[in-house]
Amino acid sequence: MAITKTDFMRGMQCPKMLWLDKHRPKLKVIPPEVQARLDAGNDFGDRAMGMFGPYEEMTVYHPGTQVPDKAAMLQRTQEHLAAGTPVICEAAFSNYNNYCAVDILRRTEGGYELYEVKNAPAVRPQFVRDAAFQYYIVRRCRLPVERVFLVLHGEDEDAPFVPVDVTEEVKGLYDWVNGHIWDLNRMQKQAEEPGQEPGAQCERPYACWYYGYCHAQEERE
Ligand code: SF4
Predict the structure, then answer these.
(1) Taking the CB of the first residue and of the last residue of the chain, which one, N or C, has fewer CB atoms within 10 A?
(2) Beta pairing class for 145-153 and 161-165
(3) Would the CB of 202 count as within 6 Å of ligand 1?
């Protein structure tokens, strides 16, 4: 695969973060509280799959692993699109090997609605950028997308899934995604480590898992 949604988001926060993911991932240190938050987000996402009733999930793992089999997911998604399945979860799309899996794809009369689930109480700019990457890939695959929503975690735990329409913001980022995706593709393949200095991007929007490595490197220089 070229650039996934996660790659894109990490590369846009810091190119060196994406490069280290590809070339030196063992340097990564994920704090336990961050892992707990990621696990809670995955659990919320799993529960949200049923927010529109029955659904089909596209996730396929390589045998004996928890590693997604992206080729199998792409094929399964195409089969369900062709069959007109009303709600497809983890719907996989690829364009020039750039890849994303959409949390929830819901068929409408004229096309589809795309839902990105976030275990958070409010819209944040990085959530919109995340949805914009998916919209870009899905549109490049020529699927008609009518609306794009973030699904937030509302206060009512009996009905916690709160969709917020971000269609216009996401469409406005199409050219921005196109303007960066190919640069990140090239950069992640280069042999040399990018000479990125630590700075505000080490903390925002997410604390970087290479913080210890880069800051130790900075002290040595
Ligand atoms: S610690 Fe900072 S400079 Fe190093 S990879 Fe992370 S964001 Fe980039």
Answers:
(1) C
(2) antiparallel
(3) yes
What is the pLDDT at residue 23? 97
The answer to whether position 13 is within a domain reads: yes
> Residue ranges of the alpha helices (H) in the chain?
5-13, 15-23, 32-48, 70-83, 125-140, 167-171, 174-189, 211-220
In a domain, 221, yes or no: no
Per the structure, how many domains does the chain have? 1
In ligand 1, the atom with minimum distance to the C-alpha of 215 is 1
- Asked whether residue 220 is assigned to any structural domain, the reply reads no
The CATH number that applies at residue 41 is 3.90.320
**Residue ranges, the chain, pLDDT below 70:** 1, 221
Which residue owns the Cα nearest ligand 1 atom 3? 198
Q: How far is the CA of 102 from the centre of ligand 1 (A)?
A: 27
Domain of 72, in residue numbers: 5-214
pLDDT at 219 (0 to 100):
74
